[in-house]
Amino acid sequence: MANEEQRMPGDDPNAGEVPADRTSGPESADSGPEPQEEELTVEDILGAEQDADAKDADAKDADAASGASPAEEAENPYLEDLRRLTAEYANYRKRTEANAELEKQRAVAAAVTPLLAVLDDLDRAEQHGDLVEGSAFATIAQKLRGTMERFGVVAFGEKGEPFDPQLHEAIAQVPVPGTEQHTVLDVIERGYRIGDVELRPAKVAVAVGADG
């Protein structure tokens, strides 16, 4: 057609233009997508914490191997006070327990002391042969004595043992030739105690030398 210009091959109007994505120069050659920051996962965080804990443990072990830390050395004066207070408390507790046990023994002693006269009657009956084995009287005596033993009541005072003024009450002195040491010749009434509490001393007759 007359109005249309004939275009020869190679007459591309954009032939002289350079595409935008093909810019020349070193900057364009090295350019590329910017690196993105790596996202941390839960496993990464936990792993980092475990590594930190392991390092702290190693540091503490090293301090322990090298000796007491300065802070521990500064507290040493108070350790001696702590030991002293601990010992004082242990002694106080022992005294308290001992006092409590003593008060318990005294309470039991006050309850059983009136029964000692009954035990004296049983002893006299036994000496006279009235406690026949198998009789009702003997059974009652056995039960009463067993009950006193369960309360911790202990009898003392035997013939032939050395006289002890802390344990015996001498109600009679009998001169016996050849006696060099005062000894218990006869037990009138036995003594009784509960633990460290003496209910009463033993009433005894004491054998003494003929010259007094």
UniProtKB/TrEMBL annotation:
Entry keyword set: Chaperone, Cytoplasm, Stress response
Main location group: cytoplasm
Keyword match Methyltransferase: no
Signal peptide, first to last residue: none
Residue ranges of the region described as Disordered: 1-80
Top-level taxon of origin: Bacteria
Pfam family for this entry, one: GrpE
Record localization: Cytoplasm
GO cellular component, one term: cytoplasm
UniProt-listed InterPro entries: GrpE, GrpE_CC, GrpE_head
BP-aspect Gene Ontology terms: protein folding
Annotated Basic and acidic residues bias: 1-10, 52-63
GO molecular function annotations of the record: adenyl-nucleotide exchange factor activity; protein homodimerization activity; protein-folding chaperone binding; unfolded protein binding
Subunit structure: Homodimer.
Family: Belongs to the GrpE family.
Record function comment: Participates actively in the response to hyperosmotic and heat shock by preventing the aggregation of stress-denatured proteins, in association with DnaK and GrpE. It is the nucleotide exchange factor for DnaK and may function as a thermosensor. Unfolded proteins bind initially to DnaJ; upon interaction with the DnaJ-bound protein, DnaK hydrolyzes its bound ATP, resulting in the formation of a stable complex. GrpE releases ADP from DnaK; ATP binding to DnaK triggers the release of the substrate protein, thus completing the reaction cycle.
UniProt name for this protein: Protein GrpE
